[in-house]
Specification:
The complex is a heterodimer of chains A (246) and B (390).
Chain A: E1 3-7, E2 10-12, E3 20-21, E4 24-25, E5 33-35, H1 37-53, E6 56-62, H2 68-75, E7 81-85, H3 95-109, E8 113-117, H4 128-136, E9 139-144, E10 146-147, E11 152-157, E12 160-165, E13 170-174, H5 186-193, E14 197-200, H6 232-241
Parallel strand pairs in A: 1-6, 1-8, 6-7, 7-14, 8-13, 9-13
Antiparallel strand pairs in A: 2-5, 3-4, 10-11, 11-12
Chain B: H1 17-34, H2 38-44, H3 49-58, E1 66-67, E2 70-71, H4 75-88, H5 90-110, H6 113-124, E3 130-133, E4 149-152, E5 156-167, E6 174-181, E7 184-191, E8 197-198, E9 213-224, H7 236-270, E10 272-273, E11 276-277, H8 282-311, H9 316-340, H10 352-364, H11 369-381
Parallel strand pairs in B: 3-6, 4-6
Antiparallel strand pairs in B: 1-2, 4-5, 5-9, 6-7, 8-9, 10-11
Helix pairs in contact in B: 1-4, 4-5, 4-7, 4-8, 5-6, 5-7, 7-8, 7-9, 7-10, 8-9, 9-10, 9-11
The chains are: A alpha/beta (246), B alpha+beta (390).
Chain lengths: 246, 390
């Protein structure tokens, strides 16, 4: 019976407006937080894995109290082991610190496999899965697009795809798969109301990264307007050679 | 276009975690499975069966009922479900309203233990579809004068009469039918296949096209004695059901209004006339501000009514006010939204005309706008004005 730790990161809704105030993202201005989309693919793969082969799932997140939402959403899909990692004096954890804290929780959960997204939708670093594998001494397969309960994983490559199998312990990071995370139902939502979330802290080493500040993306330059049939060849040329959409 | 729900007073922050999860579940389903298919369903005049299956799988049918496989959610959660469904289409919300409030509720409240166990689990899962037969061809606002009658034939009841404007009728497995037995209105459960029962579909509608509307015909319809609802006599039975359905409509209409507002806002920001977005002109801003004002007031009504339903402090007149007001403003908002969309507003590329046409029915069914005014008039004055001797 396999034990899978699924790592779920809470990120701003991908449609949320991000405001930078005094060099830092103003989290209080973010209206909606969601589970990072690649983590949702990993979660669905874990659900299908345990449904087919038996076993259980521990859902783990790292974040302040608002991150309980992603665990309750997981509980609505039947996950009963829910762990949130946080200490109130934590701020601006770097990748090594995040990986260390998550690896400790994975070990405590007794997980054979770790499933997570290939990268988060907010930081996009893509370092969490491989970093945890390094700490745990586990195998690591990244950017998996298809999986099965026999431990076989398909990952796209530049020239096609490759299928690999792996023995545990292993960390698997998922890219977009064919399987969107299933919707909960009311019965699951009612069960989630009673879900118990274990909150754990932990010691993390001093950060090696100094956070200097956030900034908004540069504003796009204004668009160009072309008028009249004489400009058609030029527009076609730009669409083909610059925009590369033709 | 990503749907951004208008919630000017941040009322959804008053929802419980559970209510928010239910909202997100239904909203996500409507976005993914309803909106891409609704125009085709309307043009073909069908209610897609996959929606019945999905509603059952989500577990939202009979939302506020407890036990017998029913969800046991709050009335506010039920309202939120109706709002999210009707953002998709009033026909979809009608399906859920009729199933939950008009067919499941009377069995849950007035049925025998055997009836509850026989029907409710299957209805909650969507495996059994129910409908509600009250309105007759000649008796709409005045159901007390219904003609349909039941006769006690010793070992069975015999039903004769006809019902009209029955949502879900043709696709139903069972109908909760109100008929006079010895001059007293009683509820009966009629099953598809019962001798002398048929439910032909009504066609030619310009409204609620993605909803099945039917006649119910009882011609010496023979049903077993254990199909009578033992727990209620008189108009209290059907009116209890209607109170719950009207409550759902008061929320649902806001979903349609919010969809129209959202479309009008987006359109006005992107439509350029006289070198500027039409949203930059005062006349258009006035329309949008009016929509926001009315939707927000409607939301406050619905939320407060929901809390009253949950704590038991409501009276039927509260529901009349909310149903009447919220459908009325939703219809006017749809009309204003069509105006903002200009000629494009009549196309099925936008949701406007569909919602507008649907809301014409919603304004009339489950107690017409005028009847709700008369209910409130009676409440204010103590004088009923529904009927008089002329």
């Amino acid at each position: 019976m396999v034990e899978i730790a699924v790592l779920l990161k809470q990120v701003p809704d991908t449609n949320a407006k991000i405001v930078v105030v005094n060099g830092r993202v103003d989290e209080s201005a973010i209206a909606s937080w969601v589970t990072s989309p690649y983590d949702e693919y990993a979660f669905e793969a874990a659900l299908q894995h345990t449904e087919a082969a038996g076993g259980s799932i521990t859902a783990i997140t790292l974040g302040p109290a608002r991150a309980d939402k992603v665990l309750k959403d997981a509980a609505a899909l039947g996950v009963t082991k829910l762990v949130r990692i946080w200490q109130d004096d934590w701020q601006d954890l770097d990748s090594n610190q995040v990986q260390s804290a998550l690896a400790n929780a994975v070990t405590a959960a007794g997980a054979d496999l770790v499933y997570c997204g290939k990268q988060s939708a907010d930081r996009n670093q893509g370092s969490t899965g491989p970093g945890i594998a390094e700490i745990l001494g586990a195998a690591c397969i990244t950017e998996v697009s298809e999986s099965d309960s026999a431990g076989s994983y398909l990952r796209p490559t530049a020239s096609g795809s490759e299928r690999v199998t792996v023995s545990s312990p292993a960390v698997v990071t998922f890219t977009k798969t064919q399987n969107e995370l299933r919707r909960p139902n009311v019965r699951g939502i009612m069960m989630a109301k009673r879900a118990q979330i274990e909150v754990v802290g932990g010691d993390v080493s001093a950060s090696q990264v100094n956070f200097n500040g956030h900034s908004s993306p540069a504003q796009k330059p204004p668009g160009k307007t072309y008028e009249g049939s004489d400009s058609v060849p030029e527009v076609v040329g730009l669409l083909r050679d610059e925009a590369k959409v033709l | 276009m990503v749907y951004e729900a208008l919630d000017f007073y941040d009322l959804d922050s008053q929802l419980t975690d559970e209510e928010i999860m239910v909202r997100d579940m239904v909203r996500g389903w409507v976005d993914a499975e309803v909106l891409p298919k609704i125009e085709k369903a309307c043009s073909e005049g069908v209610f897609p069966d996959e929606w019945r299956v999905a509603l059952g799988e989500m577990g939202v049918l009979g939302a506020p009922l407890e036990g017998y496989g029913c969800p046991g959610l709050s009335y506010v959660a039920y309202g939120v479900i109706c709002r999210e469904l009707e953002r998709g289409d009033s026909g979809l919300r009608s399906f859920a309203s009729v199933q939950g409030s008009l067919a499941m509720y009377p069995i849950w409240d007035f049925g025998s233990e055997e009836q509850k166990q026989k029907y409710l689990p299957g209805m909650a899962s969507g495996d059994l579809i129910g409908c509600f037969g009250l309105t007759e061809p000649d008796y709409g606002s005045n159901p007390g004068d219904m003609i349909t009658k039941a006769e006690d034939k010793g070992d069975h009841f015999l039903l004769n009469g006809a019902k009209m404007w029955i949502t879900n009728g043709t696709i139903s497995d069972l109908a909760v039918v109100w008929a006079k037995l010895d001059g007293v209105i009683r509820g009966f459960i009629v099953e598809t296949g019962d001798e002398g029962y048929s439910a032909p579909e009504m066609t030619g509608k310009y409204s609620l096209k993605a909803s099945v509307t039917s006649e119910l015909v009882f011609q010496d319809c023979k049903i077993p004695k254990d199909r009578i609802l033992p727990g209620v006599k008189g108009l209290k039975g059907p009116f209890s059901c209607l109170n719950n359905a009207r409550f759902g409509i008061s929320w649902g209409a806001l979903g349609a209004a919010q969809a129209c507002f959202s479309s009008a806002k987006e359109y006005s920001l992107s439509r350029i006339q006289f070198d500027h977005p039409i949203a930059s002109y005062q006349l258009v801003q006035n329309k949008l501000a009016w929509m926001l004002r009315e939707i927000t007031k409607g939301q406050l009504l619905a939320f407060e009514l929901g809390r009253k339903k949950d704590n038991g402090s409501w009276i039927p007149e509260h529901i009349s006010l909310a149903k009447m007001n919220n459908v009325d403003i939703a219809l006017e908002i749809a009309r204003e939204a069509r105006d903002i969309h200009g000629a494009n507003g009549i196309l099925d590329e936008y949701c406007i005309m569909r919602h507008m046409a649907n809301l014409e029915s919603v304004k009339t069914y489950e107690g017409t706008h005028d009847i709700h005014n008369l209910i409130l008039g009676r409440h204010i004055t103590g004088i009923q004005s529904f009927t008089r001797s002329l």
